[in-house]
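Repro:
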Amino acid sequence: MRIRAISWNLFHGRDAPPERELLSWRSRLLRISERGETHVQVNRDLYAEFADLLARAEWDVALLQECPPRWSDRLAADCGAAAHRVLTSRNSLAPLRQLVARLNPDLIASGEGGSNTTLVRPAVGRIVERRDLELTLRPERRALAFCRLDSGLCIANLHATNDRPPLAAEELRSAAATAVRWAGSAPLLLGGDLNLRPAHAAVFGELARRYSFSEPAIATGIDHLLGRGLEVVEPEHAWPPARRETRERGLALRLSDHAPVEALFETAVSG
């Protein structure tokens, strides 16, 4: 069985133009779209744009981070997938946060609350087990979303702490150790926004030596897909910017400040 996987930090469902001057306070406070030479920045709910892009893309497993919790079930339905959602940080008073996010997503930004959401399409199996692991509470809650499919494949989705590489490395070690224990002999896909660059992080080599995970192919990136008991058919690679853009009145609307990372695996052992 082959598994085409993507990992994508959704930036809480917001756009991120390359022209940073378009991210103005006028847009944030008054919801006025800012137009540059090539791109536009908008301040409105972009569920339809994200859902359309994900629904049309070819993947079997999608590991999403900074996914608005209110999106998870709708994305699963629109993508013909099953979902496993684990809440991360800022999810108290959820109805109020979600109301503000619908009205002004750029003003509340990450304050809406987030989740690690894993989407699985039927071609690679049905979710038969769901687990989660709290890794860190401060500075923000970080959690591992783990699921097992009836095909034997196990999937672990993580968003590690940003701007604190030692803490992110400890979270990744803990997540990997727990996911390996839960998966047992079954093939395991571990990925997400790991907030670690392999060129400067020894932890990836540790995971390869200790658990036989594949090593990242993107030395300077922070989003990765690692396989254990999986053969790497196509190494991880980031989508070009244009692939996550839509058109808005003749200009490009770039979704998220992260590019999706994609890889193709093949099961090497049975679960």
